[in-house]
């Protein structure tokens, strides 16, 4: 397989905002000990070094500087700055001195080619993009694996042809030496010997060309294996990104079982990738050893021209080496088959991951719908709570106005009750004064009566001595006056009876008014208070009238100065006093009832106000809670959207960067191969 049969480059569309500049540094070879000592530090630059290690040609064939500039990109390729005539050991020394400097400049990082991804729309696009990328990587790995198989088959064919042509060349050289060493050889034999030597030289050149072609094919095989390894690294990176995104989704959805299953699948996939890399490194080591040992046939051919005995030994060792190489090629074929099986297993694991991703996508859609419904319900509840809060505020204002009105009414009632209590106290004072005056009048009348009895006794004693005629006249006069007094007493008794009837009428009227008051108490408190006040005033007026009548009766009793009239007046006064006390007690009872009713209404209003305030606080707390839950749901939704957007941006950026990187490497490598296709490539150097 020649260099002209290079794989066609893959053209990808790149954004105009992505500038590209590549500098090719010297890529001299290193010894095997340095390769093993480099370790993980040399792994990072393996991809870029192995691609450009074969670009060294002679100084006469390469230009001092290759540059290409398009509408949006510019490509510059600088030749190595050191001399190339020092040989392989000089190149290795220079390689050891400028290793760190070259490693810094030859590494083409993914961050240099990345650009900010455009904003995605949905989480489903991100998952589909990742699935498409993994599918493309799988297809590339399969294509590279098929190319590796074809290259190994061609390498086996070339080795078989080389084994077949090697005995012919050895026999021709042996015959040439035998004919040349004969002493009596004819000119025809000399001509035949010259022709044989020419044929042997042609065969030697053909063999060298075939060995060069085999070396080139082996280098192409190594390059393909390196590409396969790079694709495997890229697949591992994308698997890591997919695992990170799945871990984030698992943290949001709290599916521990699914995440443990995905973790096991990821560990298996990583083990397969590491096994693939280990096998590829082993294959590269074997190919390097084969390349190192294939320099032996050149030395054998040179020694065959000088010494014939050594030729047989070298050919035997060459046959042994070729047999070992065949065994190694068979082991490589078995290793490639194992790699194919691992790739199939990884494909199955990848399909499982895709199903898990679809399941996660479905669950995420369901959660989104549930969040939308919950947010809608929260909004409706918030609107309803705001309406109820407004209504409760209006009711609270109304109750407060009613409470203020009731407070005003209560103050007015308190003033009225205080005025009534002052009036009752005045009436009590008047009653006590009237009682004291009546008692004093009765005492005076009794004293007068005793004095008059004494005078009467004296008069009787004197009348005994007087004439009987004067006594009879006085007796007649006293009888006339007594009859008059009896008539007056009867009149006073009738008046007292009439006053008693009037008081009974007043009591009945008071009872009727009390019943009316009880009936009207249910209507309005103010009217009841007014009516009670009027009734109390009427009762007080009647009591005052009764007191006046009692005073008049007491005055008449004083004038009559008789015990019967005084006793009757005392009984009437006592009855009137009892009526007055009953009226006062009734008025006090009505006042207390009115106060109790007002206090009950006030307590009811206060309880209603407290209930309304508690309802208002509950509605406010519920509204605040709904608002907080709504804000929390919106914040979680926005944060989740932002995280998904960031994941999509990073995935798109990595995908575009990888496509740009692959496109650029393929284009640059194809241009270098087309420039240096006619010259001999330097010995290939592999990095572990």
From TrEMBL:
One of its GO terms (cellular component) is centrosome. Keywords: Coiled coil, Cytoplasm, Cytoskeleton. Residues 88-107, 497-536, 586-611, 628-637 have a biased composition (Basic and acidic residues). It is found in: Cytoplasm, Cytoskeleton, Microtubule organizing center, Centrosome. This is Outer dense fiber protein 2. It comes from the Eukaryota. Residues 1-144, 156-186, 364-391, 497-541, 580-638 are annotated as: Disordered. Residues 115-131 have a biased composition (Acidic residues). Residues 26-35, 614-626 have a biased composition (Polar residues). Belongs to the ODF2 family. Its main location: cytoplasm. Residues 47-61 have a biased composition (Low complexity). InterPro entries: Odf2-rel. Residues 200-231 form a coiled coil.
């Amino acid at each position: 397989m020649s260099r002209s049969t290079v794989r066609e480059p893959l053209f990808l569309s790149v954004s105009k905002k992505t500038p590209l500049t590549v500098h090719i540094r010297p890529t001299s070879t290193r010894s095997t000990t340095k390769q093993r000592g480099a370790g993980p530090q040399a792994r990072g630059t393996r991809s870029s070094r192995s691609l450009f290690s074969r670009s060294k040609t002679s100084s006469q064939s390469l230009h001092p500087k290759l540059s290409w500039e398009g509408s949006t990109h510019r490509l510059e390729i600088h030749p190595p700055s050191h001399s190339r005539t020092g040989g392989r050991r000089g190149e290795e020394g220079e390689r050891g001195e400028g290793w760190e400097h070259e490693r810094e400049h030859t590494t083409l990082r993914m961050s240099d080619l990345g650009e900010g991804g455009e904003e995605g729309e949905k989480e489903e696009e991100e998952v589909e993009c990742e699935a498409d990328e993994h599918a493309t990587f799988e297809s590339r790995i399969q294509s590279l694996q098929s190319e590796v198989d074809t290259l190994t088959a061609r390498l086996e064919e070339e080795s078989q042809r080389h084994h077949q042509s090697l005995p012919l060349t050895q026999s021709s050289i042996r015959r040439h030496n035998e004919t040349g060493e004969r002493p009596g050889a004819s000119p025809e034999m000399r001509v035949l010997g010259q022709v044989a030597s020419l044929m042997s030289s042609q065969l030697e050149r053909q063999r060298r060309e075939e060995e060069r072609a085999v070396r080139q094919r082996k280098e192409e095989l190594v390059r393909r294996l390196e590409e396969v390894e790079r694709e495997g690294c890229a697949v591992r990176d994308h698997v890591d990104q997919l695992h990170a995104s799945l871990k984030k989704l698992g943290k949001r959805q709290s599916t521990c079982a699914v995440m443990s299953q995905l973790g096991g699948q990821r560990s298996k996939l990583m083990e397969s990738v590491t096994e693939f890399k280990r096998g590829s490194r082993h294959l590269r080591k074997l190919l390097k050893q084969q390349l190192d040992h294939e320099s032996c046939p050149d030395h054998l051919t040179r020694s065959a021209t000088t010494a014939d005995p050594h030729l047989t030994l070298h050919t035997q060792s060459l046959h042994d080496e070729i047999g070992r190489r065949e065994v190694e090629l068979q082991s490589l074929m078995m290793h490639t088959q194992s790699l194919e099986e691992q790739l199939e297993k990884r494909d199955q694991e990848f399909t499982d991951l895709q199903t898990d991703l679809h399941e996660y996508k479905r669950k995420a859609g369901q959660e989104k719908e549930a969040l939308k419904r919950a947010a809608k319900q929260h909004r409706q509840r918030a609107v309803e709570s705001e309406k109820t809060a407004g209504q409760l505020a209006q009711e609270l204002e109304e109750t407060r106005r009613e409470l203020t009105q009731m407070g005003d009414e209560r103050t007015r009632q308190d003033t009225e009750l205080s005025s009534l209590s002052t009036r009752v106290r005045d009436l009590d004072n008047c009653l006590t004064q009237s009682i004291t005056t009546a008692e004093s009048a009765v005492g005076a009348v009794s004293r007068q009566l005793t004095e008059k009895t004494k005078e009467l006794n004296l008069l009787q004693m004197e009348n005994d001595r007087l004439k009987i005629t004067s006594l009879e006249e006085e007796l007649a006069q006293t009888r006339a006056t007594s009859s008059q007094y009896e008539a007056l007493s009867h009149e006073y008794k009738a008046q007292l009876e009439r006053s008693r009837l009037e008081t009974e009428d007043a009591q009945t009227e008071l009872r009727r008014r009390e019943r009316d008051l009880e009936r009207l108490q249910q209507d309005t408190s103010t009217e009841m208070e007014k009516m009670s006040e009027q009734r109390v005033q009427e009762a007080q007026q009647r009591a005052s009238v009764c007191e006046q009548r009692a005073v008049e009766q007491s005055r008449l009793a004083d004038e009559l100065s008789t015990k019967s009239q005084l006793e009757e007046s005392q009984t009437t006064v006592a009855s009137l006093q009892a009526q007055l006390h009953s009226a006062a007690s009734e008025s006090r009872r009505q006042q207390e009832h009115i106060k109790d009713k007002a206090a009950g209404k006030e307590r009811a209003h206060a309880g209603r106000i407290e209930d309304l305030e508690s309802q208002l606080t509950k509605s406010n707390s519920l509204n605040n809670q709904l608002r907080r839950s709504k804000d929390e749901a919106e914040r979680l939704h926005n944060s989740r959207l932002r995280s998904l957007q960031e994941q999509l941006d990073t995935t798109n950026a990595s995908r575009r960067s990888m496509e740009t990187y692959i496109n650029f490497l393929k284009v640059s490598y194809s241009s270098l191969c087309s420039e240096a296709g006619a010259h001999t490539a330097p010995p290939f150097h592999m990095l572990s």
